[in-house]
Every structure is written in structure tokens, then in C-alpha cells.
């Protein structure tokens, strides 16, 4: 993993996207669209990398600060931070010294997408969040890719559990391919034990990222 970090202060990820919520009688969905003409994808990647590493070092922020100093000022890591960051980041992202084998690109893209959607979901929630389960340590961890439990008006509870799938269209008209990808993600969630428990729930969320062309992340819930 290249050491990336942001100089953008506390810039939120949602500030990079235009979010549109669509409400239908049977379901609702949110489309978050990023236009590279407004803010470059490199800047977005820097902010996301900053958030991921801070979260993974949340109980030992001195290692996050060491990572940040290495990224911004090329200050060498001390031995303790080098070992900690290798453990926190290496299995998924690899390391600059290639101690770990190169990560599977599909798994890596999916893992980055999981964290992008998780951060977007908790930054501007439409309902109060009672409990959060972030993405797993690795993209291949079993179960859904993240979970939020909300409290609604009237004290009812609602959960959102989602699954990440990569979609790479192979034709100009790719609607059928996209439907197949969404259905695979939805079926995987719908068959999980958690989705059948007695919560008041929207349908499990099937998230497909990225689309071709303009970068987009969409959730069907």
C-alpha cells in the first residue's frame, strides 16, 4: 500500500458527492455520484485512505500519526509503528517493502468500496444510528459487508445490512448485467441468518460499486 494521507483537514467524504434519494412505494434507494471535474479522484482517495487508517488505528492513534507524518513529510517510521502498521494494513493492502504478496485487485477494490459506503452512510444518516458494525478486517471475511441499526419515530428499529459487488459492464447496454449483479448481492444477503431475524427492516441493501464512467455508489434499500 502506498502511504497516502490527506492535507484537506477534516473534510468529509460526503462533500465529494452529490446524493439523491429516490423513494418508491416498495423500496427506496440512494445514488451518490462523484464528478472528477469538481474534485479529482486522487483527492477523494487521499481523504478515504486517511479515514481508513485512522479507523484501523483508533485505539493506538500514535501509529496513525506516524503514518501521517510518513505520508506528508517522509519522516521514517519507528520500529513500533512499522510493526503495528504492517499488522493493521499489510494483510489487505500490502506493504511498501512487499513483505505481503500483492493483494487481489478485485478484493482490494471491493474492500475500498465497503469503507467508502460505510463512511458515507454514517456521515449523514437519515435516521438515528444506534449501533454500527463496520466492514471486516479483510474483504473476504464472511457475512455482510457492514451493518447499521437505526431507531425510527415511534421507537421501532430498522437495520441496514449490505453486500458489496463489483460491476464492470462489458457492453454499452449493460442493464441486464447490472440487474444480475444486484440480484446476486441481494440473494446473498437475503439468505443470511441475520436478514431473517425479527427486526423491522427495509430489504437488505445491495450495493454495486463502481459503475463505468462517472464514479457512482448506489444503495438499494
Key phrases:
36% helix, 21% strand, alpha+beta, 5 helices, disordered N terminus, 221 residues, eight-stranded mixed beta sheet, globular
Your description of this structure?
This protein is of the alpha+beta class. Helix content is 36%, strand content 21%. Strands 1, 2, 3, 4, 5, 6, 7 and 8 form an 8-stranded mixed β-sheet that branches.
Gyration radius (Cα, Å) is 18 Å
Distance separating the two termini: 33 Å
The H/E string reads EEHHHHEEEHEEE
Portion in beta strands: 15-25%
Task: Give the proportion of residues in helices.
Answer: 25-40%
Shape: globular
Q: What is the number of beta strands?
A: 8
Give the mean pLDDT: 76
pLDDT under 50 segments (min length 5)?
1-9, 195-221
Tell me about the largest β-sheet.
Answer: 8 strands, mixed
> Which structural class should the secondary elements be placed in?
alpha+beta
Total helical elements = 5
